[in-house]
Amino acid sequence: MLPYISEFIGTCLLIVLGCGVVANVNLKTSGMKGAGAIQITLAWGLAVMIPAFIFGEASGASFNPALTLALAIDGSFPWNKVAGYIIAQLLGAFTGGCIVWLLFKDHLDQEPDAATKLGVFATGPSIRNFWLNFASEFVGTFILVFAIKGIMNVPGLAAGTDKLFVMGIIVAIGMSLGGLTGYAINPARDLGPRLAHAVLPIKGKGDSRFDYGLIVPIFAPILGAIAAVLVFSIIPW
Fold first, then answer.
1. What is the pTM of this model?
2. Which residue, 104, 105, 83, 11, is CA-closest to 52?
3. Which of 121, 133, 153, 227 is the most buried (most CB within 10 A)?
4. How far is CA 131 from the centre of its chain?
5. Model confidence over 33-58: pLDDT tens digits?
């Protein structure tokens, strides 16, 4: 039971910190309005690192259905835990989205732009082009999972140092590719908070854009993660 609880709480913390920084930087009445993309990308890296330090020993700190599934496919994660992990991750992401709404409710109510409200919770393309948006999420997740697998190639890696490397990977992907689609690179990161946006009584929230959200930030990360472990497995290290 502990691994599932860990994935739930860890993913919840990830979303509170990650979606929280988007709200902090983008909502009109926030005290940090306009802090910019550097704060957002660094904070997302920290949002992954902090729960990873807490729950790495308990669950492996996946917090990402695409990563969980890919690791099962390459044999480094047991299949009998996949469904439970994914359910815990999605529930944690939804709960995190609800917490962000509660904390920023007054600011969300005063934000006039519906797209900015949605952007607090979910990702979206800066230019809508299905195949390029899909490619961006595929490549971003490929890099994430390929690099995570590659961390194990570092000789004499000190315990816990891998979490710092993962933070660096997340920050690098955000700074290099984040402007294209918001770099979901994690189906739970997008779907959980997007569902929260859909069901919560957010004033003037507009559409939750499931036409995009049920395809690109779900299937592209899954396929990108699977491709990463398959490519990694055929390299003669």
1. 0.97
2. 11
3. 121
4. 20
5. 999 999 999 999 999 999 999 999 99
